[in-house]
UniProtKB/TrEMBL annotation:
Entry keyword Transcription: yes
Family label: Belongs to the sigma-70 factor family. ECF subfamily.
Organism from which the protein derives: Microbispora triticiradicis
Protein name: Sigma-70 family RNA polymerase sigma factor
Subunit structure: Interacts transiently with the RNA polymerase catalytic core formed by RpoA, RpoB, RpoC and RpoZ (2 alpha, 1 beta, 1 beta' and 1 omega subunit) to form the RNA polymerase holoenzyme that can initiate transcription.
Domain RNA polymerase sigma factor 70 region 4 type, first and last residues per copy: 117-167
Length: 304
């Protein structure tokens, strides 16, 4: 890989790796930029020739992300209410507005398995387990490469990934693979929410559905996950108490989801997990800090 142009071509993959480890696009971008600066400094100081620059960058990004993940663990344990990842919009859907910064799908390459719900499951792993699982099972790195990132032997990394795989398999969300079927359920969900139709919502929600809402202690949100179709439907039909809103279809972390606007301002990104034609998880990001990037992009587009 040559200079900056080669790095820019690789940046989406590096961002995808870092985001899969951290669940924060802001932190992922910081890590990727740090890795690039380290590579430049290595070359400027006449360091040894790096045979596989792409592999070196992937391992360096992973190592830096692991350090951030370890330091963030305590902060997330003290987080007010459920912690959800910063949402990534991978394209507008069904005639909705183009939301997000220019070319969001080109700036970060997300594996199809890195859904909002899956990132919530990954939060329950130790930093080393998460790194081994994401790098090997999601991005296909060898255990020797994983070992370079986590500072352990390939055999130890194999064990880390196996433990993580068992944990993820027991908790990973089921989902429908047909995007059009998923989108039909999401559209019906939007109509039911806008119409305060609790009967329609109950027909769409899995009996054991879970709703997580992340307000970060900054805005009003449920402090604990809401379990069961009846409780989730009541909460959703009560949203009108806080004023009129609009729901716009969008692709959230690679799957059909919704954006909730109030008076023209983005207030919530909603990720929905659908399995067997029913919604099994509703993940609502309301924390303004996690929506700031998307809000800025909206404001920039509106000024054009």
């Amino acid at each position: 890989m040559g200079g900056g142009a080669g790095f820019e071509a690789l940046r989406p993959r590096l961002l995808g790796v870092a985001y899969g480890l951290l669940g924060s696009l802001d932190e992922a971008e910081d890590v990727v930029q740090d890795a690039w600066l380290r590579l430049r400094r290595h070359r400027e100081e006449g360091g040894a020739e790096i045979g596989d620059v792409v592999g070196w960058l992937v391992v360096t990004v992973s190592r830096l992300a692991l350090d951030v993940l370890r330091s963030a663990r305590h902060r997330r344990e003290e987080y007010v209410g459920p912690w959800l990842p910063e949402p990534v919009l991978t394209g507008a859907v069904a005639g909705g507005p183009v939301v997000g910064e220019p070319g969001p799908a080109e700036r970060v390459t997300l594996d199809e398995s890195i859904s909002m719900a899956m990132l919530v499951v990954l939060e329950s792993l130790s930093p080393a387990e998460r790194t081994a699982f994401v790098l090997h099972d999601v991005f296909g790195l060898t255990f020797a490469e994983v070992g370079e990132a986590v500072g352990r032997s390939p055999a130890a990394c194999r064990q880390l990934a196996a433990r993580a795989r068992t944990h993820v398999a027991s908790r990973a969300p089921r989902f429908d693979v047909d995007p059009s079927a998923h989108r039909r359920v999401v559209d019906a969900f939007a109509r039911a929410c806008l119409g305060d139709d609790i009967g329609a919502l109950l027909a769409l929600l899995d009996p054991e559905v879970v709703l997580r809402s992340d307000g970060g202690g900054v805005v009003r949100a449920a402090r604990r996950p809401v379990l069961g179709a009846a409780k989730v439907a009541r909460l959703l039909t009560g949203l009108r108490r806080f004023g009129r809103f609009e729901l716009v279809p969008a692709s959230v972390n690679g799957r059909p989801g919704l954006l909730r606007y109030r008076e023209g301002r983005l207030v919530t990104v909603i990720g929905l997990t659908v399995a067997g034609g029913r919604i099994t998880a509703v993940d609502m990001v309301l924390n303004p800090e996690k929506l700031a990037r998307l809000t800025r992009a909206d404001e920039t587009r509106n000024r054009r």
